[in-house]
Amino acid sequence: MHHLRYSGLGFEVQRTAFLAIVVADPLLGETLARVRALALPDWLVVSGALYNSVWNHLTGKPPGYGIKDVDLFYFDDADLSYEAEDAVICRAARHFEGLPLPVEVRNQARVHLWYPVKFGQECPRYASASESISYFASKTHAVGVRYDAGGHLELVAPFGLDDLFSFRITPNRVMDNRRTHEVKGERARECWPEISVVPW
Question: CA nearest 141: which of 59, 73, 62?
């Protein structure tokens, strides 16, 4: 049960462990350095690249195992047009050339415009990149990191880290995201059989 060594510990202990794992991961280290240089407003690297890297570290798997891409959120409500976001996506694609994983860039100020079309239900108009992750289908996945102005890595984890360190995918019922929770949970268990998925 060595992979559960941080399960049930206090948040500060878990936060320190989480950030140490992220910083030491070669894939994430390089990606975060490049994201910082891109200097997008209110940016956050979120989700799979983070929690999957922690699970890889704790189960002895190689960096990058089971990770499809890196999700990069930013928040800019000055121009909500598709064209403005697309310009940022194109600039980012050039900036991230040569990284081993693709970086998916999305402006969280625009999500409410396309979400109902794609998913068939309304989505709140977010006020920040941080707020958007509190609406993820699973609480376990709601993690983000960024560098603050002083160059220190900052963690955003609205539901804490115990689910993540307990290898437990817990639903977040703030929206009807049951299907996403179940699909992601099933995929995660294929890569990390130590995981349990809490039913919706």
Answer: 73
Spatial separation of the C-alpha atoms in residues 78 and 76, rounded to whole Å = 6
pTM strictly above 0.90? yes
Angle at Cα 4 formed by Cα 200 and Cα 197, nearest 5°?
Answer: 15
What pLDDT digit, counting tens, does each position of 46-80 carry? 989 999 999 999 999 999 999 999 999 999 999 99
**Cβ atoms of 122 and 113 closer than 8 Å:** no
Judge contact between 99 and 34, C-beta under 8 A.
yes
d(CA 3, CA 103): 28
d(CA 120, CA 145): 29
Q: What is the pLDDT of residues 75-109, one digit of tens each?
A: 999 999 999 999 999 999 999 999 989 999 999 99
| Maximal CA-CA distance, the chain | 49
